[in-house]
Amino acid sequence: MSTHFSDDVDCGTVDDDRQKASSLICDREFFVNAILTACVVVGAASSGMAMGYPAILLPQLKSNNSTLYTDDEMGSWIASIISASMPIGSVISGILVDKIGRKLTLHAQPSLVILGCLLIAFAHNHAMILVGRLICGMASGWGMVACQVYVGEVSTPKARGILSSTPFVSYALGILLVYALGSLEWRVVAGLSTITSIISVLMYFLCRESHVWLIRQGKIREATIACIWFRGNKIKEAHKEIEEIITRYKNEKIVINNWKCVFEPYSLKPLVITTIFNLLQTLSGVYVVVFYASDLIGEMGIGNLEISEMFAAILTAVVRLAFSIVACLLLHRINRRSLALLSGLSTAVTALTLGICLHFQINSYFMPICLLVYVAANTIGLLILPGVMIGELFPARVRGITGGLSYTLLNIFMFGVAKLYPWIKGTLKIYGLFCLFGVSALLLCVLVYFTLPETRNKTLGDVEDYFKADGIFWSTKKEKKVLEAIDSSRKVADTSI
């Protein structure tokens, strides 16, 4: 569907709405960002709880007094089916965010979580548990894509890094929260898991639709009022942003089928970069530690050091949460490329160190410390950057579709690694597994160094223009040339207004 603007479109036509917007939207930008952050945190926590739920569910189902006894085969499906169903939610979300809007798509996600959790809570057979887990997985994929697209569009360049990484903090928080409820009966925990989703439904009523999406639907007045709200009642700044978005949209070539745009170079280049990044990130062991923390710790022999495997697993979750928060702060302070390289190199060094120590059967307290450093290293960059890239790298016209594709592929990689973990561990042994993690992290650093553009403090329009230039390899010279061209075009536009 194409939307047409008349040539005399000017945001000045909505001057009559300024007074109305000022009276309705009296809070400053910080408060608006706080609302957005709270919505993201509460909404994403349910995904973390769903991921961590098998850790308390399976031991209870496998116990001798269980009313629904579960063997290892069924238990593996209960644990992994959430990863298999996430891509389904990602694809659906990627389409809906462009069709019905970012906010409405986000608003529908908690309802899926509630349905999935209630099915599990009232399950009287394994089929109901599997369906409930499948729905929760769809909801997780659904929410991640919609959240990253929404946050990427409504936040300022300075705040975008923190807001884009917040879901991963909430994800880690959700894992810890469900662990804390582990002493309760599994049906009760499933029921309590709906609370965060209910709160999320209510909180989304406080937010507005993305002004970028509204403009693409031709709803200029609604977009302007929304942008004024997102910018903390800074009317001049909001009007300038609206004008730039309208100018960019009017200059785009109208294409009936947005899927055709996916195969344009400016869409394909970021999609290729994010896909390879996601594959190498998954192979570096980021999610293996989440799914198989206790098993990994047992294989490493840490249990022989009078440290219980469950306690060590909880420590990895605590470290993941703490360094997710650190990552949010770092995204606000340092460049994306620097953070990715720091995280990748640190992950590679610690993983290779663990591989060497395990090969020579070095068993000391250095091992659990090194494992915690490994978790911290991959959390500060490798874990959070795929979500940030969805919100920052893809062009607005196909951001929903390409974001959905990117997240779908990430979850396919995640599911594949999770299911193949026993075979890989049996083939390479535990020391070879960590060496694989380290080599993958090194290759990821090579990818980042040569291809990933710097997006910190850049507008989404600047990033889109960068990918429209020739070539895919990052270089300071190229960036300077592209940005000079962008500045030049802006000056021409300003003089013509």
Descriptive overview:
- Its main location: membrane.
- It is a multi-pass membrane protein.
- It is a single chain.
- The protein is mostly helical and 497 residues long.
- The chain has two domains: 1-254, Growth Hormone, Chain: A (Up-down Bundle), CATH 1.20.1250.20; 258-497, MFS general substrate transporter like domains (Growth Hormone, Chain: A, Up-down Bundle).
- Helices cover 78% and strands 0% of the residues.
- The protein has 23 helices and no strands.
- Helix 2 (29-52) packs antiparallel against helix 9 (194-203), helix 6 (126-154) packs across helix 20 (385-393) and helix 14 (265-283) packs across helix 21 (399-451).
- The model is unreliable at 1-9, 19-26 and 492-497 (pLDDT under 50).
Task: Record the SSE blueprint.
Layout: H1 16-24, H2 29-52, H3 54-62, H4 72-99, H5 102-121, H6 126-154, H7 157-180, H8 186-192, H9 194-203, H10 211-216, H11 220-230, H12 235-251, H13 258-262, H14 265-283, H15 288-291, H16 293-300, H17 309-333, H18 336-359, H19 366-383, H20 385-393, H21 399-451, H22 460-468, H23 476-496
Short description:
This protein is 78% helix and 0% strand.
Keywords:
78% helix, mainly alpha, 497 residues, Growth Hormone, Chain: A, 2 domains, 0% strand
> Average pLDDT across residues?
81
Terminal Cα span? 28 Å
Separate helix tally: 23
Could you tell me the CATH topology label of the largest domain. Answer: Growth Hormone, Chain: A
**Structural class given helices, strands, pairing?**
mainly alpha
Number of strands: 0
Query: What fraction of residues sit in β-strands?
Result: under 5%
Order of helices and strands: HHHHHHHHHHHHHHHHHHHHHHH
